[in-house]
Give the backbone structure.
Amino acid sequence: MSLPHSVSRRTFLKSAGAAALAAPFFAKNLHAQAPSRVLRHASFGTAGMAASDIEALTSNPLVKLVAVADVDLTRAAKLKEKFPDIKIYQDWRQLLDKEQKNIDSVNVTVPDHMHAPIAMSAMQLGKHCYCQKPLAHDIYETRMLTNYAREKKLVTQMGIQIHSYKVYRQAVAIVQSGVIGKVKEVHTWSSKKWSDVGAPPERKDPVPEGLNWNLWLGTAVERPFVSGYYHPGNWRKRLDFGTGTFGDMGCHIFDPVFEALALTAPLSLRSEGPAPDKWNWAINANIHYVFPGTRFTEGNTVNVTWYDGDARPPKEISALIDGPAAGDVTSFDDSGKARKRKQDPDNQGSIIIGTAGVLHVPHVSTPKLYPVEKFKDYKLPQPEQGDHWGIFSNACLNGGKLPGANFDYSGPLTESVILGSVAVRYPQATLNWNAANLQFDNEKSANQYVRRTYRKGWEVAGL
């Protein structure tokens, strides 16, 4: 499907999506055929976490990086030193158009607001997809990605790499073993502060050489470039581009809780923290979720509370892990390399309270059981340390079992997390969530935040 200069990018997006939905050519002829010797891969994003994803994925000798797309060509150019044969594009749509027959898989490692458009467009061309967390910026987008990947039987993985690490697997195994009894409640938190206050600066700065600001904005409403305010790092604080601390770190820290308890969609949620302003996410979130009970919980429902910034669980909850000093424990960096550090229970993690004990799950360190005296002789389970990226690429190459953070798992996880982005807009109000219908039943105005409107010309079929 070559793209003449007279055909707009908008036409390409619509036609590519329509073709994929109307006829199964792409899925039948591209996604299902695992490459016999090499996985031809493309990356959307080239710097920061994208560079880490590229390095991790291509550490597999059977993965070949064929092409990359980055709205900032100065960042993309650096990859040429390591991958001299790659093709570089500034417009992700051009990459998909020109390279669709030359690639088998992609990673989407760009700001949150562009996850869904790029991932959906790639999957509609039959490409296996590794997408960074959160899976999408909005709840509706997340559901559509999940459904499409399942329908087309694509190999998918969300970039919550700790999901595959030994320490999170240990936490899941401990809870599901029943050693702490049935779970009564959970408190989970992050000290990060992806938040801000006040309107953007009233100025228009020159766009740096190599950056296409229109492409960076993508689906978002047009606005002037302001140096240091959006690109490359602070977009996580902005309502239109990021998802705040809970969207960023919630997908990590909720993960072992979500898996260990076999949680589904929450029944309701309530924010006790501050609301965002017109432009930015607020600091110090305090979001109470009520989930349906499972075989691992004490009752018909279970409460999970999220805190970020300076907010923390109540003192009586924190006191449950005030036992002897944990000392040096094994932890892991983002690449999976082991390191030693002093455990910091006040930084990021979860407290899972059971009828027979308490589990502290630091992010990212060995889980610890309380009271210490009761569990002093308990032998921690010893699952293997997993290679999150390797699991994805091997599944693309060899088929078989889907990765553990495939969209069927990470989609519902992301939906639950970013429901917080709606709850914080309604402080002190309980929102009843109807997951089947993707709507809030008792606060109709909240439904405007389930699905956003894309900028004209940036529509994507299926979203």
